[in-house]
Amino acid sequence: MTVPQITRSVLVGLIGAGIQASRSPALHMREGAENGLSYRYDLIDTAVRGVGPEALPALLDEAEGRGFAGLNITHPFKQAILPLLTSLSDDARAIGAVNTVLFRGGERIGHNTDWWGFAEAFRRGLPGAALHHVVQLGAGGAGAATAHAALSLGVRNLLLFDLESQRAEQLAADLSERFPDRTVGAGRDLAPSVASAGGLIHATPTGMKAHPGLPFPAHLLHRELWVAEIVYFPLETELLRSARAHGCRTLDGGGMAVFQAVEAFRLFTGIVPDAERMLRHFHTMTAAGGPE
């Protein structure tokens, strides 16, 4: 007698604002199927629901009540969610931002897979990049992760810029404490800072479909500068187009999107996914221009 095989079910999702174009559902669900799982990934889009950060407690309750294994968290909630969690991983606590939440036995555990995702993409996409002096735009949840990654990769001097100067100052202070052998500061004048930098990390929403344009005037770019982008929809942002036109080495946001998902998948399921397969799937979706 043949015993029917029981398929393990996994339900996860993503909380963010304006996330209908996210590639995360397709990326996760395909990898789930490849591992023999019944894997469902739902979008919880606060823009569609017409709510803001005040709804986060109810959204977490809803997901936990529906039996979610966990959630990904994206803009603009990676820091707002911190007080709603019962514990944090070492990485999430150090970075001060969460992009992955696990529901385990009544606990809500926050993790940060963004920093590793950016670091892995950078190692692969910009080998040999100059790391002495780097400028970063953005000191929010994503910026906290990319800055941590940059210093972990060996950046010696990091200058942070943010429209909220106090946020850049606070992040610089936190990073200086964690990386006492590096120089980290909050920038004041972008033009001379970019002119003397060997690299630039862009960690703001500018360039997304909902926030088109450049984060600063294109004439500040120069050929000695590498430019790393975190925006991945569209994959070809105006910043990357301008940077390449100025002769810069560039890194798009696709690698970070994939590799943070690789680690989130492992946390959600306990299964180590095939990172190369997920990367191929991402590039296939991008080339086809299909749903995210």
UniProtKB/TrEMBL annotation:
One of its GO terms (molecular function) is NADP binding. Residues 14-101 form the Shikimate dehydrogenase substrate binding N-terminal domain. InterPro entries: Aminoacid_DH-like_N_sf (IPR046346), NAD(P)-bd_dom_sf (IPR036291), SDH_C (IPR041121), Shikimate_DH-bd_N (IPR013708), Shikimate_DH_fam (IPR022893). Pathway: Metabolic intermediate biosynthesis; chorismate biosynthesis; chorismate from D-erythrose 4-phosphate and phosphoenolpyruvate: step 4/7. GO terms for cellular component: cytosol. Keywords: Amino-acid biosynthesis, Aromatic amino acid biosynthesis, Oxidoreductase. Residues 255-280 form the SDH C-terminal domain. GO terms for biological process: aromatic amino acid family biosynthetic process; chorismate biosynthetic process; shikimate metabolic process. This is Shikimate dehydrogenase. It comes from Segnochrobactrum spirostomi.
